[in-house]
Design brief:
The protein has about 400 residues and is of the alpha/beta class. It is built from 12 helices and 13 strands. The strands form 2 sheets. An 8-stranded mixed β-sheet has the order 1-8-7-6-5-4-3-2. The longest helix is centred in the C-terminal third of the chain and has 24 residues.
Length: about 400
């Protein structure tokens, strides 16, 4: 199969008139959004974070004062707060999946941990991502919805949101003849990794690409690094549906270490980039339900609060005791570890309290997310705290 590279401006033959008009993205606005200044409306939150700074950090480290839900149960495993019902999605069937209709010919499938999206057309199915935990249930879900419609169940095109194996590791199930589409960086990475379960895309693009198959279309766009250097936006304009993976987690706090993202600054910016699309339904790639615009707004607030609280902790937490304890023995890593762990605990405390009961698992990953945010502030935002320029 030959390699096709899509240009920044898709060829006219790819976009059927009246079917797909590419969404125009305001790049200049998002360059401005990269400058993260604290808004005056956050002063109340920062005051609370400053109060938390006065609480001995040892309490957070030793577990004193941590909510009861975080203590170990009799099983030896920790207990966590109940999940808000609104954070849960539909129940899966006996085979372990749920498939639902987003709009005419557009569907999503989940196992309550991962999500994929697919578009049925008169010429075949366009699948976006192939998470291995869903695996062959993808084929079953597609068969469920195409049965009796007269539309083929054969997957002819497979779009990669990004190169991570947990989202496309079942790509090999669809054989060699499927047209695989992804960002040019996705192809570069996958060629280097040579994973037989993730064949490299044969159709690539740099900035944007319009895919039209059987009278249906999807718009693919790259707005810069975020979760990974190759993570893309997949937009179904007719259905006003956006698929953006590993950025928004509807109803939940982000996965550990801000979704293990390689570019935190870009990941933060991707929230507003998503909001600039005129979508009404979001496929986030994880967990059990679809998203709405209010989900992004809540997560934006969580991220902003976490950034403010981490900045406050870096600027107020006195590192003297860590230098005194570990400095004489020359253990620089012990100094950094204990100080940054204390910063994370201090930064997480008010955020966890604010979002408990509002976002699922606020007590599970907020300390880890605070650590990732504090490191991003030190490295990418120049909030060095006690490790600034020596006088």
């Amino acid at each position: 199969m030959s390699i096709i590279e899509a240009t920044s401006e898709p060829p006219a033959s790819l976009a059927a008139p009246g079917v797909c008009e590419f969404f125009v993205f305001d790049t200049r606005r998002h360059e401005e959004m990269m400058v993260m200044d604290s808004a005056p409306s956050r002063r109340t939150f920062l005051r609370r974070a400053s109060i938390a700074a006065a609480v001995p950090v040892t309490a957070a480290i030793t577990g004193i004062g941590i909510p009861e839900s975080a203590h170990a149960s009799e099983s030896g495993l920790p207990d966590f707060a109940p999940i808000p019902p609104a954070s849960l999605g539909p129940a899966v069937n006996q085979a372990g999946y749920h498939v639902g209709e987003i709009g005419p010919n557009l569907y999503w499938v989940t196992d309550s941990f991962y999500q994929a999206m697919f578009l049925t057309t008169r010429d075949g199915v366009v699948l976006v991502d192939a998470p291995p935990t869903i695996g062959r249930n993808l084929l079953r879900a597609i068969a469920d919805v195409t049965k009796g419609t007269g539309r083929p169940a054969q997957v002819t095109h497979l779009i990669y949101s990004h190169h991570h194996a947990d989202h496309i590791g079942a790509s090999s199930l669809f054989g060699r003849d499927v047209v695989r589409i992804g960002h040019e960086e996705t192809r570069r990475v996958l060629l280097a990794e040579a994973d037989p379960n993730r064949p490299a895309p044969t159709v690539t693009f740099r900035d944007r690409h319009v895919l039209t198959v059987g009278g249906e279309c999807l718009e693919l766009a790259y707005h810069g690094p975020n979760h990974t250097a190759d993570n893309i936006f997949v937009y179904a304009p007719v259905h006003r549906t956006l698929m953006l993976v590993d950025v928004i987690f509807p109803g939940w706090v982000p996965f550990k270490n801000l979704a293990a993202s390689s570019d935190i600054r870009g990941w933060v910016a991707a929230h507003q980039q998503a909001m600039d699309y005129p979508w009404t339904t979001l496929v986030g790639g994880h967990l059990g339900r679809l998203g709405v615009r209010a989900d992004v707004q809540v997560q934006q607030s969580y991220v902003d609060d976490l950034m403010d609280s981490a900045r406050t902790a870096l600027n107020t937490l006195d590192p003297t005791r860590y230098f005194q304890k570990y400095g004489p023995m020359g253990n620089a890593w012990a100094i950094f570890k204990t100080y940054l762990d204390a910063v994370s605990a201090q930064a997480a405390a008010p955020v966890t309290a604010k979002y408990a009961g509002r976002l699922a698992a606020a007590d599970v990953f907020t300390v880890d997310n605070a650590y990732a945010m504090a490191e991003a502030l030190r490295i990418d935002y120049d909030v060095l705290g006690p490790f600034g320029i020596h006088p």
